[in-house]
Amino acid sequence: MTTENTINDEIVDQTPIENNEIDSDTLDSGIEERVEEISREEQLSQDLASEKDKFLRLFAEFENFKRRTAKERIELFKTANQDVLLALLPVLDDFDRALTEIKKTDDNVLIQGVELIQEKLKSTLVSKGLEEVPVKAGDAFDADFAEAITQIPAPNMKGKVVDVIEKGYKLGDKIIRFPKVVIGN
Description:
single chain; 59% helix
């Protein structure tokens, strides 16, 4: 309390109250001050609660942002080589076709040389995360893992893979090139 308030309180205490008469203006102003103080406290507590709520929401949003960007970064690192690997897949296909044709000859040194180069290329691509999609003749056709180029009449192979035209590959869990197959009808 200030000095002025203390003096006023002493003056009020010294004035005699006759016939239990209380100055209604003094009471009203005191009550209003207390109500005003209470409403200020309530207002401040509401403001504090509102700011806490905003802070918690902002903090949660920031945590979600960090988690999402970390996940996107991991996905980016997993598939960063996708374009390069897609460009090298035709080279790998050419090696397979070349090896098939060279095996028709009797030149063992040439066959070994091409096999060594092909294995080196395959092992390099596998070390970067490339995997072959396992589809072979006789497997049941699944449109989620293979692309049907055509259907041929084959009564005993209905709905199954008859021939694999082009191998498919995946990078991690994502298929980057679907195998192209012929299915029986």
